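The records we work with from here on pair a chain with its fold. These numbers are not coordinates but entries in a learned vocabulary of local backbone shapes. To see the layout at work, look at the sequence and tokens printed below.
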Amino acid sequence: MFYRRNWIAVTVVIFGLAMFIPAAQAQRQEFENIWCGATIYNVMQFSKEISAMSGDAKGILRSAHESKLFDNWTTHSIFVLKGQDGK
């Protein structure tokens, strides 16, 4: 009985101290980039009902932000697009 009461007290103290741990507040940061590149589209099917295509894009990013965080980054994207009834 005494052993169980000690564990309950320790648990209450830990949870009580955990309430005072500060939580990190995220900040919104916006970046403006310029992307120069080329995209190759491969149309698999194209009709009024359904359209499907894939693509491969390669390029380079230039940062317009003063920190130049994304300056001279190379990009490579592979994607699949699907459209149904004009959407």
Observations:
- Strands lie at 33-46, 50-63, 73-84.
- Residues 2-84 form one domain.
